[in-house]
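During the reporting period the student researcher (J.K.) took over the structure-prediction task from the postdoctoral fellow and processed the backlog of single-chain submissions. One of the processed entries is reproduced below for the supervisory committee.
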Amino acid sequence: MAPAKAMAVLVLAVLLLAASSATAVHDYGDALHKSILFFEGQRSGKLPPDQRLRWRHDSALHDGATAGVDLSGGYYDAGDNVKFGFPMAFTATLMSWGLIDFAKTFGAHEGEARKAVRWATDYLMKATATPGTVYVQVGDAGRDHACWERPEDMDTPRTVYKVDRDHPGSDVAAETAAALAAGSIVFREADPAYSKRLLDRAVEVFEFADKYRGAYSSSLHSAVCPCYCDFSGYQDELLWGAAWLHKASRRREYRDYIRRNEVALHAGDTINEFGWDNKHAGINVLISKEVLMGKDEFFQSFRVNADNFICSLLPGISGQHPQIQYSPGGLLFKVGNSNMQHVTSLSFLLLAYSNYLSHANARVPCGSGGGGGGGATPLQLRRVAKRQVDYILGDNPLRMSYMVGYGPRFPQRIHHRASSLPSVSAHPARIGCRDGAAWAVSPAPNPNLLVGAVVGGPSNTTDAFPDARAVFQQSEPATYINAPLLGLLAYFSAHPDLAQ
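J.K. obtained the following structure tokens:
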């Protein structure tokens, strides 16, 4: 056996063995509760009376005023004080997808998960209230990143950025449409009137995104780059938005749009990446459900793409050199910053696809040609996804949970301004832009626990983690890391032994 293939088989064996005989018994329900609680720590705007992370206070109440609009609310995306619409919309879409597919497993946490979605969708409704315009960012990223201050104190420019017909942004607009459409499904029964408003707005925003095509990274390059440039182009977001509108509305026009634009918008791309930038893998998995449920054979190519993508995540099964690496401790690994965003999003797709396969009594024909009993079973996909979740919660060489507040050992010095500075209650006096530097470089633990935050985690193949505020690539949390984790934790809280 070739060395590369032998190593792939060994890694897969480690992953599946660890999943079936975990070193710790995790309270996935508690982790789910904490993961949702994290979003309260990321809230911008006027905080509600039932705010549970009490060390956070009102902030950015006048966002949008310079443009004559109300853009208060929404989420800060990570450890800074800028509101980036692109990752916020993706966050809302993924939280909604988890609720749509696994609502019954959320149990007592379903209501608080819906509140987390609504905090985003309420803001996105404000950001799209002006026809032909989508407000996509509040805050000057360069000026903000030059300061270390609490969101309650910030005095950096709250510059407003938008896309419109003269400055197109099909990527961010279509992702916003996807978020609104997905949210409309989440609230279909809980709040039908709100659900209808979300879907109606999603239709309008998608029409704008498709009619005025262009990348927002071109229109707003100096504002959104390098933080959230869309390196994959806007084509994937248009297909993604259409797929969610089809799922939410069941209108034939969106099915026809996908078929008509499948080639032009590169639907065949099977890049094994899924996140706020690249939606191809998510598109293929989402649309494949239609095929597996026997609802639309015309989308068969998407299932083929999804199968190829899933196989690329399963070393030792595909029969090909694996495209995804795993660390010695079993963590899915991709080169770049904030590896945990890849871990949670790809694991979510593994779980979602395993769910679709189970209902169709099917499997993934990795290396089997589609015949016989070869390929990967839905249970194998779930085991690999569960192994990643367990790694995050502490089943790793360092025995460290990468979720703040979960387990006996977790990151103490996360790269997060509000968490690392004393709260307004503890330190009522203003902390200016430069005044926070002493806390930023301090080796002391953060004074405020951002409960539920999952940090970037190990960023190399040695499973090492420095727990240092300065190493933001590893120590910074982000909403789009936690968003896909909600569905995963909900499912495993109801199926901890993978018996079903």
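The committee noted the following: The beta strands are 83-84, 133-138, 160-164, 325-326, 332-333.
J.K. will present the remaining backlog at the next meeting.
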